[in-house]
Predict the structure.
Amino acid sequence: MNFGPVTGGPGGPTVFDPYTLPSDDNVNPYTFCVELKGSQWLLQKGKMIAYYGRIEFDGVGHGRFDRLLRTSFHSPLHAGDWVVAEGQGKMLLADRAYDVNSYDLDEGNLTIRAGNLLAYQPSLALKQSIVPGFLTLIGTGKFVAASNGPVVFMEPPLRVDPQALVGWADCPSPCHHYDHGYMSGVLGGIRSLTGIGGSSGEEHQFEFVGAGTVLLQSSEALMAERPVGTVGAEPGVPGAGAGHGGHGGQGPLGQLGVRMPGQLGDFQRRLGL
Amino acid sequence: MPFREINSKMVEAQIVPGQTLYSQRGAMLAYRGSVSFTPSITGGQGGVMGMIGRRVANEQTPLMAVEGSGTVMFGHGGHHVQVVNLTGETLYVEADRLLAFDGTLQQGTMFMGSQGGVMGMVRGQVTGQGLFTTTLKGHGSVAVMAHGGVIELPITPNRPVHVDPQAYVAHHGDVRNKLSTALGWRDMVGRGSGEAFQLELSGQGAVYVQASEEKL
């Protein structure tokens, strides 16, 4: 009977040392290795699991990083969640056994769910997206992101379940799509009047059209949302003034307390419909 | 309408006009084309009687009918997905493990006691299946969810397969199964191996086993 680990093959598990660890590449699907040669990386707190060498981790609030922050960190509300790694060595990044991958941007832009971004090179600039709960990276460089299951790249036109969306690149038009076709017709009328039959759970999607790439994670289990703070209550700023931590289970309609046609609310829920 | 596995946690289905696909509500990840998702009041086939049967058997699961023309991606809860292609045989699976299945498949419920009497009912309790399980019969594809990866173990005559009841996902074919117990005095004093109950499947077919003892 063989009790040894399977992944390592006949020679047993692969043992890494500072020289055999890959440089800026995946060690396995769940771990990413970043090599620092006197350079800096920005990473979310708590995503570093091990490191070799001399690496210092400082909060971004540190005065030494004033210049760095001026060029590559434009999200003061996230300042508490990010640290700067600086020094010589290799560090391993992972996030709760989610799949981890690195992506290269070349004079590009990519918007990603705030909780999915692990780390990025300071040659990229991090900004808050005008879509609440998302962050936008602009420029040239590498970043590391986690997803529940491997990321699937799709081309628009496409409609995506809000929970399955990891991010998008170059798409100019992310918008909401509401689908209530099944509420029409005789049966739909009954459903709409009585609430019997409930909703399909698929009446709200994010719609993408135009040129670009949409990143999907292959499950609807969301990573824990990081509190992304609130944007200043200014006229014309989406999501201003309201906390928007909860992107899970409920759609924006649920958050707003709007009742869709055909929903009987608590009564319907009690009947399990 | 076969499902195409995009990766271990995601399948893609082509929807063509005139054919219906049933899927668990909320399991759509993305779609292209004009596809409608209609909640199925009766939770599948068989009309109102089918619905009552499933409610009584506690095998009802919120389903939706997927129609139209286009491409739909399915996945749910980060669970691994296994596609089972049926060619006339019957698949026995718990309703809440169903991610999506062809509308051409016949959906039914089966009383566990009808396979092995009282021991069948005990088996249902041990595997977490309860007293009833869902059957799908005909020609078509089923996408089944499981916690952890899934392996398919073929069952051939004279080569019965023993499965941990908690790791059991589904089986198809002409398979008899019974619960075998290996209870000894060690189990009584709390020094058992933890493998006192095993599911023994014999006959002709295949059983799907998940790499986890966690229920869905």
Summary: The CA atoms of residues 84 and 193 of chain B lie 33 Å apart. The interface with chain A takes residues 6-10, 25-32, 36-41, 62, 64, 73, 75-79 of chain B (CB under 8 Å). The helical segments of chain B are 47-56, 117-127, 185-188.
